[in-house]
TrEMBL record:
<dbReference type="InterPro" id="IPR013342">
    <property type="entry name" value="Mandelate_racemase_C"/>
</dbReference>
<feature type="site" description="Transition state stabilizer">
    <location>
        <position position="338"/>
    </location>
</feature>
<feature type="active site" description="Proton acceptor">
    <location>
        <position position="318"/>
    </location>
</feature>
<comment type="similarity">
    <text>Belongs to the mandelate racemase/muconate lactonizing enzyme family. RhamD subfamily.</text>
</comment>
<keyword id="KW-0456">Lyase</keyword>
<dbReference type="InterPro" id="IPR029065">
    <property type="entry name" value="Enolase_C-like"/>
</dbReference>
<feature type="domain" description="Mandelate racemase/muconate lactonizing enzyme C-terminal">
    <location>
        <begin position="154"/>
        <end position="261"/>
    </location>
</feature>
<comment type="subunit">
    <text>Homooctamer; tetramer of dimers.</text>
</comment>
<dbReference type="InterPro" id="IPR023444">
    <property type="entry name" value="L-Rhamnon_dehydrat"/>
</dbReference>
<dbReference type="Pfam" id="PF13378">
    <property type="entry name" value="MR_MLE_C"/>
</dbReference>
<dbReference type="InterPro" id="IPR036849">
    <property type="entry name" value="Enolase-like_C_sf"/>
</dbReference>
<feature type="binding site">
    <location>
        <position position="213"/>
    </location>
    <ligand>
        <name>Mg(2+)</name>
    </ligand>
</feature>
<keyword id="KW-0479">Metal-binding</keyword>
<feature type="binding site">
    <location>
        <position position="240"/>
    </location>
    <ligand>
        <name>Mg(2+)</name>
    </ligand>
</feature>
<feature type="binding site">
    <location>
        <position position="268"/>
    </location>
    <ligand>
        <name>Mg(2+)</name>
    </ligand>
</feature>
<feature type="binding site">
    <location>
        <position position="21"/>
    </location>
    <ligand>
        <name>substrate</name>
    </ligand>
</feature>
<dbReference type="InterPro" id="IPR013341">
    <property type="entry name" value="Mandelate_racemase_N_dom"/>
</dbReference>
Length: 394
C-alpha cells in the first residue's frame, strides 16, 4: 500500500521555463511572429506586447504522507494556482495516489461548468503530471515504464526555432520556423514569408524537413495560398496551426485544399479526448500535436493517443519537455518528438524548460537514448534557485 496524499501546493515562477514565451528581450520567440493579434499593428512586433507571457509558470507539488514529493511545471500562473489550491486539491488530499483515473475524472467534471479547455485544463494537467511524478517516485520507476515501456531505444527530434540551418548541423531531423507575417501584411508579407522559407531551403538542402508554425494567425484563403506556394516553391513538410483552434471546419477544408504530400498539423491549443476527437473525426489534420501540460496531462493523453492510433493519425506532442519524452518513447504512432530551441539565438541546445528543472535531459545530435529517462518519476527536480511564490496558501 502506498502512502496517502498529504498535501497539494501550487506556486508561480516567472521568467523562462514552462511558460517558454516569458523570455528576455531580443529572443527569437518574440520577434515579429504572426499571431491572431497581428491584425493590430501595435501588437505585431512582439507577442509579449499583447500579453503572451502574462501568466507565468505554474508549479504543482504533491506531497505524500512519507514526505515524498511529486511535482510538475506547466503554464497557468496565478489563476491556475488558485484553481489547484481552492478547487482541485480536495480531490487528492487523503487519497491513495494510484487513483489517477478517478482523480482526473473528478477534477474535470467538477470544473466542467467553468472549464473544459484552456486555463482550467492546464491546471488539471499540472496536477495530473505531478501525480504521475509522485507515483513514479514512490514506486521507484520512470513514468515511461508505468506507461508500458519503450517501443524503441531512442527518441529522434526535430527542432523549432529561427535557425533550421543550425538545427541541421546539430543533428535534428527537421526544423520548424515561426511564420513572421500574417494576412494583414498582404501580398508583400506573403512574399516575405516565402522568401524566408526559400532562404532556409537553400541553406538546408533539399532533403531536410522544413515546417512552418503559423500560431493560429491565418484565415483559410491565406493558409491555402501559403500552403500551395510553400510546398511547390520550397518543399514544405507541414503547415502547423494555421487557423483558430475553434475552426474545425476551416481545418477540414485546409486539409482538402492542401497539395498532396504536404501535411496539415494542429492541436497544441486543443484539450481532452473530446477536443481531439473533433479534430480527428472531422479529418482536420494529418498529425495531432497535444501539449502534455495543456491537454489534460498524461492520463488524458493516453486516451487521445489510443484514439489517434485506432484512426491511423500520427501524434507528435507539442514541446512539453520530459512530459512528452516519457510518452513518445512508448508509442509507435509518435515516431519523433519536438524540441523547442529556447536559446535566444538559437545557436545552442539548452534544456527546454531551463532554468526551472534540474536534470532535464537534452538531445545529443538530435537524439536521446531511452536510458536518459531512467530515473524515478519524470526524472527531474525543481531547481531550488528559481524563486517560487505561493499566492494561495492553505
Ligand atoms: C514558435 C511558435 O510560434 C510557438 O512559440 C511555439 C509553437 O507553437 C511550437 O513549438 O509548436
Ligand atoms: Mg506550434
Amino acid at each position: 500500500m502506498l502512502p496517502k496524499i498529504k498535501h497539494v501546493r501550487a506556486f508561480v515562477a516567472r521568467g523562462a521555463g514552462a511558460d517558454y514565451h516569458d523570455q528576455g528581450e531580443g529572443h527569437w520567440i518574440d520577434d515579429h511572429i504572426a499571431t491572431p493579434m497581428s491584425r493590430y499593428p501595435e501588437y505585431r512586433q512582439s507577442r509579449q506586447s499583447f500579453g503572451i507571457n502574462v501568466l507565468g509558470t505554474l508549479v504543482v507539488e504533491i506531497e505524500a504522507e512519507d514526505g515524498t514529493i511529486g511535482f510538475a511545471v506547466t503554464t497557468g500562473g496565478e489563476p491556475a494556482a488558485f484553481i489547484v489550491e481552492k478547487h482541485l486539491s480536495r480531490f487528492l488530499e487523503g487519497r491513495n495516489p494510484v487513483e489517477v483515473e478517478k482523480i482526473w475524472d473528478q477534477m474535470y467534471f467538477s470544473t466542467q461548468y467553468y472549464g473544459r479547455k484552456g486555463l482550467v485544463v492546464n491546471a488539471i494537467s499540472g496536477v495530473d503530471l505531478a501525480l504521475w511524478d509522485l507515483l513514479g517516485k514512490l514506486r521507484d520507476e520512470p513514468v515511461y515504464h508505468m506507461l508500458g515501456g519503450a517501443v524503441r531505444d531512442e527518441l529522434q527530434f526535430y527542432a523549432t526555432g529561427a535557425r533550421p540551418d543550425l538545427a541541421k548541423e546539430m543533428g535534428f531531423i527537421g526544423g520548424k520556423l515561426p511564420l513572421h507575417h500574417g494576412p494583414a501584411e498582404g501580398l508583400e508579407g506573403m512574399d516575405k514569408n516565402i522568401a524566408q522559407l526559400a532562404e532556409m531551403r537553400s541553406r538546408c538542402g533539399d532533403d531536410f524537413w522544413l515546417m512552418l508554425d503559423c500560431w493560429m494567425s491565418l484565415d483559410l484563403d491565406y493558409a491555402t495560398r501559403l500552403a500551395q506556394r510553400a510546398y511547390n516553391e520550397c518543399g514544405l513538410k507541414w503547415i502547423e496551426e494555421a487557423l483558430s483552434p475553434d475552426d474545425y471546419w476551416g481545418y477540414a477544408a485546409l486539409k482538402k485544399n492542401a497539395p498532396t504530400g504536404l501535411l496539415v498539423t494542429t492541436g497544441e491549443h486543443e484539450a481532452t479526448r473530446w477536443g481531439f476527437r473533433m479534430l480527428m473525426d472531422m479529418e482536420c489534420c494529418d498529425i495531432i500535436q497535444p501539449d502534455v501540460g495543456w491537454c489534460g496531462g498524461v492520463t488524458e493523453l493516453t486516451k487521445i493517443a489510443n484514439y489517434a492510433d485506432s484512426k491511423g493519425v500520427m501524434m507528435v506532442p507539442h514541446g512539453s519537455s520530459v512530459y512528452s519524452y516519457h510518452f513518445v518513447i512508448t508509442r509507435h504512432n509518435s515516431p519523433f518528438a519536438e524540441f523547442l530551441m529556447m536559446h535566444p539565438g538559437p545557436t545552442e541546445v539548452v534544456p527546454m524548460f531551463a532554468p526551472q528543472l534540474l536534470g532535464e535531459p537534452i538531445p545529443e545530435k538530435g537524439r536521446m537514448r531511452a536510458s536518459a529517462l531512467d530515473k524515478p518519476g519524470f526524472g527531474v527536480e525543481l531547481n531550488p534557485e528559481v524563486p517560487l511564490h505561493r499566492p494561495y496558501p492553505r
